[in-house]
Amino acid sequence: MTLPTLSKYPALNNLERQAGVPKAYAVIGVAALYFFLIIFNLGGQLLTNFAGFVIPGYYSLAALFTDTKDDDTQWLTYWVVFAFFSVVESFFNIVYWFPFYFVFKFVFLLWLSLPMFRGAEIIFRSFLAPTLSRYFKGGSSSANLRSKADAAVNKSD
């Protein structure tokens, strides 16, 4: 895995030239401030939701302009998992029960969204697909087997 170089971003090159601050220091400073605000819950909900929308939104739009279907599937999977957790989160007042909730949510959203981890795909394949596919035609084979087993048990009762 190679990290992108900061030199390919014109805005950072201009900042370095005008302010005299190295690009790496500027990026690290902004990231540290962002994380500091999340840790102390100064706009934690807004900042975590912003991270949950901006990175995936960018990659989703980029995927729409490619000819391959794999990246479209990856980002559709992300949005399904993100929506599921947003709905679950809205039912529970987790902020009051879980200290530093937004820090964990921020890290979790990065894990879900960054292409190098493909966390949304892991959550979808291990939990959501087996649970929800029985409600959709042509679901996964494990869900189909489960529904057939449930039907056989119900038929014998």
Automatic annotation (TrEMBL):
It comes from the Eukaryota. Keywords: Membrane, Transmembrane, Transmembrane helix. Pfam families: TB2_DP1_HVA22. The keyword Lipid metabolism does not apply. The chain crosses the membrane at residues 21-40, 46-64, 76-94, 100-117. GO terms for cellular component: membrane. It is found in: Membrane. It is a multi-pass membrane protein. PANTHER family: HVA22-LIKE PROTEINS (PTHR12300), RECEPTOR EXPRESSION-ENHANCING PROTEIN (PTHR12300:SF161). Belongs to the DP1 family. This is Protein YOP1. It comes from Cordyceps javanica.
